[in-house]
Amino acid sequence: MYDALAMKFRNVDINRNPRCPVCGENPTITEALDEVDATTVCDLEQS
Fold this sequence. Notes:
The chain is mainly β. Helices cover 0% and strands 17% of the residues.
């Protein structure tokens, strides 16, 4: 994350979801599309 007022970066650790359709072990979404009904996004959980 970036705090523009303080001009500082902050790292946020996240756990990767192996079933994620974007970054999981077997991704089914392999290209960026501009779709209005695009509701499936990478489901990353904050650790």
